[in-house]
Input
Amino acid sequence: MRILIAEDDLTSRMMLELMIGKWSYEVTSVEDGRKAWEILQREDAPPIAILDWEMPEIDGPELCRRIKQLARDNPIHVILLTGRDSTEDIVSGLEAGADDYVTKPFDLNELRARINVAVRLVRTQASLSQKLMELQEAFDHVKTLQGIIPICMHCHSIRNDQEAWHRLEAYIEQHSEAQFSHSICPKCMKKYYPDME
Output
């Protein structure tokens, strides 16, 4: 799992990079919001971003707003790092689009736990997106019979859009997943095969 760290303080950034790398994550780190934004706009952007609240160029909350506006099947999970711990600040960060927050100075065990939650959510979202795509593909392949179907009142042939006539069975098999097996109803058995009763 890849994680982006955007933190302008060199010591904090190096510590985060070292610790998160030790937890077996692939880490990319940058020192300002603009560089983070350039990476997060890419199609292959890391699925998890840990953003400092106060950064040069673009701050954490503004970056959160931009990230949430990206049209992605799998949204980026954002953890906001902040030295602000008032309820108003936390609410402000979450309303900007952060999925979670960690207050500085942060506890490494808490950060690891929050990253683990983020990983689970990202994987669940990816799985749901895959299932949705599979359902959409299946839906696109299912042919359905809709509207008015012109049918001959005598032989029951059906006229298609190109004015050609087709046997009822052939038309339905062509436009649906149905297949026919032929049998004979009791009424026709009596009419056409009276000796077999």
DSSP finds seven helices and seven strands in the chain. The CA atoms of residues 77 and 121 lie 8 Å apart.
